[in-house]
UniProtKB/TrEMBL annotation:
Molecular function as annotated in GO: 4 iron, 4 sulfur cluster binding; metal ion binding
SUPFAM superfamilies documented for this protein: 4Fe-4S ferredoxins
Keywords recorded for this protein, A-Z: 4Fe-4S, Iron, Iron-sulfur, Metal-binding
Annotated function: Ferredoxins are iron-sulfur proteins that transfer electrons in a wide variety of metabolic reactions.
CC cofactor: [4Fe-4S] cluster
InterPro entries, sorted: 4Fe4S_Fe-S-bd, 4Fe4S_Fe_S_CS, DUF362, PSI_iron-sulfur_center
One Pfam family this sequence matches: DUF362
Domain 4Fe-4S ferredoxin-type per the UniProt entry, residue ranges: 188-217, 218-248
PROSITE patterns assigned to the protein according to its UniProt record, in alphabetical order: 4FE4S_FER_1, 4FE4S_FER_2
Species annotation: Acidaminococcus fermentans (strain ATCC 25085 / DSM 20731 / CCUG 9996 / CIP 106432 / VR4)
Protein name (Swiss-Prot/TrEMBL): 4Fe-4S ferredoxin iron-sulfur binding domain protein
């Protein structure tokens, strides 16, 4: 397969140059304008972040992309689908409030916000997955599939289950309805190591299935019948007391996520942008964001989501870990087994490469890319 072109620009802005101008120049140089936007509904898929999370993409960047779509005759709208777990994005009303409070509204972004899978997360379309090995039909938010053109605008950061969150996760997991998210997460059910459990209650607060209770010993217990396998409790536990006992659960999640992403983008014009900045160790689904593990790197764009994520991952691996971060703390531990992989050293149970390998296998894109750097 021919190498995909990935375009890149850093955040250096001499006096008189705006980062917003650089983003628009990047999109134009990457030939986003070759898409026929005229009169077309254009979904800009992004992550609005939980309330309290400050690492999400600034709304000014979003407006820069939306303005380009309108300049080319398109009708842009921002979209995301509801979450499995409790929080500020579990239904469309709370989700819209969250988006507005986090700065995403018609004034700041220049376009409307539509929650992709409706009021309760049940407004979905079953979409065939070409070459799907694990998913034959993906459950995708209806508004996402009703769009004529699809743009992924992702905050590239670390992730406690998938290693990092970039274009593929923004598309595959993010566009799944609540049932679709459950289908991707359902490969394994976590278990509690009672010797490590402190009985703090954090995991139960994060559980969207009411599956966690506490016995007389004040240790957490997970009811497998109720558990949806979403893994939210694993990320919530600060004591490593909850782990997936199915060794390949994360690997299967990665593969299903790639297949969901293929269902979303197949057969229609798509373009993908990753903002590699504020690289927090965990997902923006948290109501907080830990200190960045790596310095801000730049903006990347491509028609190929696999090549785009691979280029961003490679750039991150070349960067120096930031002090006073989760990654730096791990590397400083006396008995730490260094993996020489920033995502794995930040979250040791992840397997991020599987997403890209499987995505390439099923035809979502190629890991081979040519990086074109712009000033």
């Amino acid at each position: 397969m021919e190498k995909a072109k990935v375009y890149f620009t850093d955040f250096r802005c001499p006096v008189g140059t705006s980062a917003l101008d650089k983003l628009q120049r990047l999109c134009k140089a990457a030939h986003m304008g070759d898409i026929d936007f005229q009169g077309k509904f254009t979904a800009i898929k992004m992550h609005f972040g939980e309330l309290g999370n400050l690492a999400t993409i600034r709304p000014q960047y979003v407006k820069a992309v939306a303005d380009l779509v309108k300049e080319w005759g398109g009708k842009p709208f921002l979209t995301d689908c509801n979450t499995l777990y409790p929080g500020s994005r579990k239904n469309a009303l709370d989700h819209l409030d969250c988006a507005a409070l986090n700065g995403y509204n018609t004034i700041t972004t220049g376009c409307q916000v539509i929650i992709g899978d409706g009021l309760r997360g049940t407004d979905e379309v079953e979409v065939p997955v070409p070459n799907g090995e694990y998913i034959k039909t993906a459950k995708i938010g209806r508004a996402v599939m009703d769009a004529d053109v699809f743009i992924s605008l992702a905050h590239f950061k670390g992730h406690e289950a998938t290693g990092f969150g970039g274009a593929v996760k923004n598309i595959g997991m993010g566009c799944g309805s609540r049932a679709g998210k459950m289908e991707q997460h359902s490969s394994g059910k976590p278990k509690v190591d009672e010797e490590l459990c402190r009985g703090c209650g954090r995991c139960a607060k994060e559980c969207g299935s009411d599956a966690i209770s506490y016995g007389e010993n004040h240790k957490a217990h997970i009811d497998e019948e109720k558990c949806a396998g979403c893994g939210r409790c694993i990320g919530a536990c600060g004591f490593d007391a909850i782990q997936s006992v199915q060794w390949d659960a994360n690997e299967l999640l990665d593969r299903k996520m790639a297949e969901y992403a293929l269902a979303v983008v197949h057969g229609r014009p798509c373009f993908h942008i990753n903002m590699v900045m504020d690289i927090s160790p965990n997902c923006d689904c948290h109501g907080e964001n830990d200190a960045p593990i790596l310095p801000n790197i730049g903006m990347f764009a491509s028609f190929d989501p696999i090549a785009l994520d691979q280029a961003c991952a490679d750039a991150c691996q070349k960067a120096q870990p930031l002090p006073n971060s989760q990654l730096a703390d791990h590397l400083a531990e006396k008995d730490w087994h260094c993996h020489h992989d920033h995502f794995l050293d930040s979250n040791p149970r992840v397997d991020w490469a599987t997403t890209l390998e499987h995505g390439e296998k099923i035809g979502l894109g190629t890991r081979a890319y040519e990086l074109i750097a712009l000033k």
